[in-house]
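Honest question from a wet-lab person: if I give you the sequences of every part of a complex, can you actually get the arrangement of the whole thing, not just the pieces? Trying it with mine:
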Amino acid sequence: MDTTSGIFLVLDLTGTFAFALSGALTAIKVVRLDIVGVVTLGMLTALGGGVIRDVMLHALPPATFDDWRYLAVAASGGLVAFLFGRGLDRWAMPIVVLDAAGLSLFAVSGALKGLELGAGSAQAVLLGAITAVGGGTLRDVLIGRIPAVLTSGLYAIPALAGATVLVAAEGLGVPELPAAVGGAVVCFVIRMLGVHYDIDAPGPPGFRPAAS
Amino acid sequence: MDTTSGIFLVLDLTGTFAFALSGALTAIKVVRLDIVGVVTLGMLTALGGGVIRDVMLHALPPATFDDWRYLAVAASGGLVAFLFGRGLDRWAMPIVVLDAAGLSLFAVSGALKGLELGAGSAQAVLLGAITAVGGGTLRDVLIGRIPAVLTSGLYAIPALAGATVLVAAEGLGVPELPAAVGGAVVCFVIRMLGVHYDIDAPGPPGFRPAAS
Amino acid sequence: MDTTSGIFLVLDLTGTFAFALSGALTAIKVVRLDIVGVVTLGMLTALGGGVIRDVMLHALPPATFDDWRYLAVAASGGLVAFLFGRGLDRWAMPIVVLDAAGLSLFAVSGALKGLELGAGSAQAVLLGAITAVGGGTLRDVLIGRIPAVLTSGLYAIPALAGATVLVAAEGLGVPELPAAVGGAVVCFVIRMLGVHYDIDAPGPPGFRPAAS
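Yes, you can. This is the full assembly:
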């Protein structure tokens, strides 16, 4: 049990760092920001999804805000992006991989926390997806961009799939660790396949929007 | 009592479906979205106002998130908009009517929930309006549009009027059902008159904004 | 104790009025709004930061929403901006001063409330800054502007500095009133120096964003 918690903490903090880094780098590319803006957006990307989840679950104050390790790791990710933003720009692929890892870890840990606090199955799946995509969505709103999750590629779907695998596995009595690993792997693989083959989720049939 | 609850549930779910449908259709017209984006924005329009209300009232987890019927009805509305978006575009007027119905039902049910949970009169009126316009405002923020409630036509005012009628009637000892029907009718009539005569709320006196 | 509370209430309501006024005026300059939009954005600027703080602290329902005096003062500020927006435009400097006063008072009162409700030091500093800049950030998101706190001048930094002074002084056993005054003065002075000398927080080293 203690070992499992330790593994989850390491994975969760890794996801937090990855999201802070990729979130801050995305923001730098779109808007001219000062140091406060870069670090703020990095922290918001990394911690925002968890805060929304905890509000919905009534698990307040939010765990990621209450625990200084999450704050420190998220701030570090934002600071690294601020200091080495130019250099990191060339590491596009590692950042996509780290972001996909963050997505997978948060989808699974969000759904798990939902189940632990008594949410229904559908709610737990939604909470996993909200945890995974919520922070990036808040960042996109602040920098004036249509959130990527609404328009582009496979981003919410792998998170929903990974959370569904976890919830289904728990329902079938699979122990927590293999269920979590299975959900995270499913999310990660779908996400990376989407990136590699540039797959988009289907758009409305025969419908062209006025502006795009 | 049980019958009243049943009536409210039917009306509330009708409002949820109407908002999910009209919210998703509005989003499709403005931004190119995939299926995840359309359904997400439909659900957010239908459920977002209630979630904000429940956070303000400390009624967590939010009722509309906790009850699978709201989630299912909201997702269905978004899905119908996704599948039949082109066809529904010709049904502009029924959608305006449904949206006005949602506005009226949510203004009244939001104010009522505020009173039941001990909020003051002014707070209950504001909660009614927040429930009614909150979801559409979140949707507009996500698709990069100035929220309609801030700039155009009579939208917040009918919601405030309907909620005020309900709160005043309850204060005068009117039973719940006629008070709710009265408030909803007032909101609906003002909203439809505003649409029909294209009435705008007054702008600042003698003031032209730099950009518009 | 009672006198201290009285002083705080007066200062807090002064900050609320200042933020409602400056927030609504900022909104009027950017977007064409009707009376509902102006008053809504004034109230959101004045009360939004406190609501976010209270959600994070699990102090629900939010104090500024529960207490009618805050609602009334915030609505008055928005209404004054709506009615006299043209005239007030010439009073640019008093508004900057009032806004800086609101920033200072909210940074200190936000951090203080965090400490009182048991938040850690780093969390209390962040809560002070969130209280101070949160409302203006929500307003900027609604009117489709990149939040000023992310991009321009010294705005978050004075709030963080003021909150840090308060938290450090409390940790050293300084009584509440001088600690609060000291924090507010530090925030106010840094903010006004930033305005006067047009100082920006540093941007990322050697990095030009694609768009700006």
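Two things worth pointing out. Chain C has one domain: 2-197. Residues 207-212 of chain C have pLDDT under 50 and may be disordered.
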